[in-house]
Specification:
about 150 residues; mainly alpha; Arc Repressor Mutant, subunit A; 2 domains; two-stranded parallel ribbon; two-stranded antiparallel sheet; about 10% strand; elongated
Length: about 150
């Protein structure tokens, strides 16, 4: 992906260091739609022959999340109440079924069933036994920003 980004930026004479292309790759999670959105917003921000800084990548990423708010909200409400609770728990840092169950105050059996359902939908993934995460990193960041615990803001 880094080579693709470097080639695209070079085609419009935009300077972009490896650290910035790495940052774009991490933020987008490799999803072509997010790569395209970030790339377009960066191009519109600096124009041809511009230069991209890490701070600009961060700011543009925040803007992209804001522009996706309506889409993510519609997507989020399409899930059942328990699925939404589980998604919020995963988005705010719980990764093990026991943590998720404690966060949503439901029996572990219900959580295990819901985690399996969400995995079958392709919404979450299990990178290793006993740990879960959201498959879409941008949706995960949206959930984190939208539902972060109030204690984290103090």
């Amino acid at each position: 992906m880094k080579n693709f980004l470097k080639a695209r930026f070079a085609s419009v004479r935009i300077e972009c260091e490896d650290t910035q292309t790495d940052r774009i790759a991490v933020y987008s999670g490799g999803y072509p739609d997010y790569v395209q959105r970030l790339g377009l917003e960066l191009f519109l921000s600096v124009g041809e022959r511009g230069s991209i800084s890490e701070k600009l990548v961060d700011n543009v990423y925040e803007h992209v999340i804001l522009t996706l708010d309506g889409e993510f909200e519609n997507y989020f409400v399409s899930f059942s109440p328990l699925e939404r609770e589980v998604l919020v728990a995963l988005g705010t840092g719980s990764i093990q079924p026991s943590e998720v169950a404690r966060e949503v105050r439901k029996p572990i059996f219900n959580i295990s069933k819901t985690l399996t359902t969400l995995m079958n939908y392709g919404i979450i993934e299990r990178p290793m036994k006993g740990q879960y995460r959201l498959a879409d990193p941008v949706f995960g960041d949206w959930l984190t920003r939208r539902f972060k615990p109030l204690s984290a803001e103090v």
